[in-house]
Structure formats: C-alpha cells, structure tokens
Amino acid sequence: MRHALFALILAPLPAFADCPPAPDVSEAQTAILDQVRAATTEMEARALFNGVWELWTQAPDEPAQELLDRGMEARNSYDFIAALDALDRLTEYCPEYAEGFNQRAFVNFLREDFEAALPDLEAALALRPDHVAALSGKALTLIGLGREDEAQIVLRQALKLNPWLPERHLLKEAGGKDL
C-alpha cells in the first residue's frame, strides 16, 4: 500500500485532481493559543504550542500529507531541492492549504532566499491570518530583507498570539531600541 501511494505521489497529479478543503482547525487552534498565552513558563508554552503544529500539519488528504511529510523530511535533511520539489507539488495540488506555503517559505528562508520566502508567507497568511509561525517567519524574512520597521509590526502581531515565541527577543521599543 505504501509503495503504491509513494508511486502516486511521484506521478504527476491528474489535471482533474482537486485537493479537498483542509481540516478546519480554527477552534482547536484558538483554544491552544489561549492556553499558550496563559502559560507561566516558556517550556510550558512551547509544549502547548506543539499542539498547534499538529493541527497545521494535518493535510487535506493522503496524497497531500505524503507531499508535506516528504517536503519536511527533506528539509530536515537539508535536501532543499527535494523539499522544494515536494512543496511545489503540494502548493500546486492544494493551493488553499496554508501549511504548504509556510513550509516552502521556511525552506527558502533556510536557503536565505528571502525574496522567494516572502510571497509564500503572504499566501499562507492570506489563507490563515492567525498562523503564528508564518507571522514570525514573515518578521524574520523582513529582517533578512532589511525591512526592520515592517518586521517589528509583524512580530508584534505574532506575539499577540503567542507571547512566548523565541523571536520575542528581537522586539524593539517604538524608538528602535531593543527591549
């Protein structure tokens, strides 16, 4: 079964194939983020936030899940070519699934191709405006592009959702000083 599914993933997707809608995880995400904001330690918040990642990485169907998993595994192995191939296919197949864009942006961020990462982050946020990782990734990408003022605005949006983000240390006062 797994070999047949893998062959399906490697084969071009038929032109008529439609990706089903991504699972609606909004309520569960909100509940977890409420708990994250109420956390009293960074470790507690980090453990809770892992639940949000589990929600985001629930792909719409099995072929999409295989592409996402393959892309993330390749990224984790620093095989950025294979990661981009899988994630390109995922975003083509499931253009309404925010995590495909977020993961492709992350690969490009790791490659320091900030110009390529930014549109994918914007696509992810257009689909899921409260995607904390896409918000923090956008802030880091804007910093990489030298757009510090814009980055600070986006970082503040992310920190409203999760005040425990490691990127909180990059936040500056309104006058530009580090907090």
TrEMBL record:
Domain of life from the UniProt record: Bacteria
Entry keyword annotation includes Iron-sulfur: no
This protein's UniProt keywords: Repeat, Signal, TPR repeat
InterPro entries per record: TPR-like_helical_dom_sf, TPR_rpt, Ycf3
Signal peptide: 1-17
Protein name (database record): Tetratricopeptide repeat protein
Organism this protein belongs to: Silicimonas algicola
